[in-house]
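Exercise: predict the fold of this chain.
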Amino acid sequence: MYGVQPKKLLILNILDILRRESDKDHRLSQRDIADRIAAQYGMEPDRKAIKRNLMDLIDFGYDIEYTETVRRTPNPKTGELEENSILSDFYLVRDFDDSELRLLIDSVLFSRNIPSGQREALIGKLEKLSSQYFRARTGHIRSMPDAAAPSRQLFLTIEVLDEAISRRRQVAFHYTEYGLDKRPRLRLDGEGEPRRYVVNPYQIVAASGRHYLLCNYDKYDDLAHYRLDRIVDIELLDTPAKPMERVKGLEHGLDVPRHMLEHIYPFSGETAPVTFRAKRYLLSEIIDWFGDGIQISDVTEDELTVRVTVDLEAMRRWAVQYAVHAWVLGPERLVEAVREDIEKAAGHYAR
């Protein structure tokens, strides 16, 4: 109980109860609302005050659903039967339904570059977007412990990058990598000093549970990827970012969905048409990786041929990963590269 509240706060108390205790499956009558206000706020509002404030909230723009029932009741003065509307089953419609919230929570939960403490905090905020009944169903959700110590300044990095992208400004930062002591350290330049990256930022994307910055390293003319959780000491610069059309491959702008399909791993190399043969049972995973824009041909009972435009270095890694189930047919230079990788890998298991 919050203590006795002044009557002018009645409308806010009603809204608070609807937010916490109502949803599509848990609706409240005017009597239910009055009882909760009496128990939690020490007020004794009558039914007319409850109804009036509910209508005011609806008029103000709150999406509150209710059921209207018409009843014939006698007029207390004349005794004649009159039609009266009875409003009940009130609940606050949410911006996100429970399935959408659960999807967002799962996305946060399995994001590898958000520290576990921050994941817990974000999940708590998402849970508050629904009623207490949703929070009761998600009470078992817990973040996984961090497999590695992620950057604690991730959200600052995102904030600076958002501003830089919107203002079309360059950013500078240091980049970390892990040493033998399993601790992150700054990547060094050829002189043994912390290497300072100056880049032109264009887009933040997610891939394989990580967040990456798509940008252009200022010294070159191609696209680069940097993991956000490895970016530290980020600084917004006053210098304007290089226009996207001056970056190789972005002459006509950045098509993010197409880019992510062509770069199934976060590499920024050459993209080219690739043909490979695969077992039919792998088709679902192939579509998961490359999308439904692939071309399928030469289908037999056990195998099929796939043609797709993809980053060659990323395809090289994919082909080794799925070497038992799929094999590259072309281009020939990719076939040779994959063959070399597999031969080297086999050498590690030679007896």
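Check your answer against the key: The first helix runs from residue 10 to 21.
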